[in-house]
Amino acid sequence: MIYNIFAETQLEGALDRSADILSGVADTLFNAKSLMTLLIALIVSALVGRLIASVLRRFAHSLSRRADKSQDLKEVNRLRRVETMTVLTIALIRMLLVVLALYFWWAYSHPNQQPTALIGASAIVIIIASATIGPILRDLAYGGVMMAEHWFGVGDHVKIEPFADMEGVVERVTLRSTQIRGLSGELIWVNNQNIQGVRISPKGVRTMAIDIFVNDLKQGLKLIELTNERLPIGQLLVIKPLKIMSENVVGNNLWHIVAVAETAPGREWLLQDYATNAMKEIDEDGKNKVLQTDPIARFADADAEARYARTIQNARKSPLQRRGLPLPEVIAKQLGGAVIKNQTKRRANKKSS
Predict the structure, then answer these.
(1) DSSP 8-state code for residue 290
(2) By CB count within 10 A, which of 109, 119, 148, 350 is most buried?
(3) What's the rounded Cα separation, in Å, for the pair 267 and 238?
(4) Which of 186, 140, 150 is nearest to 166 (CA)?
């Protein structure tokens, strides 16, 4: 009985203290002076943030112009990384200014409170608003990881996974979201937490090769020239027309011609479909058909080919060769040579005896 009375007394005391705390927080937070101070602090932080952002954006635009003028790919990538970090700095500074404004408001409205009170109040606010700011915090976490690992930068052409048709040039990056511009001119905003993977075009173009097999080399080269006349040239179309890369004899009256062209990302169909169909139409309209098979369109990135060639070459090596040990064929040849030498010596010794 006494224990129950003591427990009830303790519970009532705790409830009274909680009510007093909540009442004090409400009185200090929702009075006219406190709200006016908070509003002024946020307005000042927004104005200062906008001023700093305008200066940093001008700097970012100057970096963008320098990157566009540079012919060195390494220099372009370096300038793009600096531009991306500048854009991220704008978001970080604005966030820091908001935090400072809140701290100033609390310190001004509660001059007699201890710093720990601010921590306690912040914890209460976070607990209450966790359902609202949870997605934003996840966006910030994902964005911070992507930027720390340099997934992509401003000016890169990207394709965002798992969205099949979401691709374009990155125009703006923040810790919360990413803005890209598609080939059709539309602006696409993506929350960073929804980005599961990114495909990047390192050079900003797609290099395609077309292989043709012809029975007349001169007419085959002429076929490439006539096809180029029908290709639409432009920065968002075919950037560079077909250029002859190799011409080899592969059989009796049979030549293999390889021509390479560049297109904007997303416009590969101009070479895969349109150019190959144009070749077949030109060949059919001519007096003598020179194409022995249908044209073959394929990707022809030099860096990718070099990487794959090295991988295939290493994969075809024997495990012994990878470890630096002699192959069985080499050992067999060495043993065979030793046997032959011994047999020769025996014959010489017999003759001498």
Answers:
(1) -
(2) 109
(3) 8
(4) 186
Q: What is the pLDDT of residues 193-239, one digit of tens each?
A: 888 888 887 777 888 999 999 998 999 999 999 999 999 998 888 98
Q: For residues 299 and 242, what is the distance between their CA atoms, to the nearest angstrom?
A: 13
End-to-end Cα spacing for the chain:
125
Helices 276-285 and 217-230 cross at an angle (nearest 10°) of 120
Neighbouring residues of 111: CB distance < 8 A, sequence distance ≥ 6:
none
Chain-centre distance for alpha carbon 283 = 41
Does 339 have pLDDT greater than 50?
no
- Which numeric CATH code is attached to 157-201? 2.30.30.60
CA atoms within 13 A on the CB side of 38: 12
Kind and range of the H or E element at 214?
A: strand 206-214
Q: Are 87 and 154 in contact (CB under 8 A)?
A: yes
Instruction: Please say whether the structural domain 206-304 has been given the CATH code 3.30.70.1710.
Output: yes
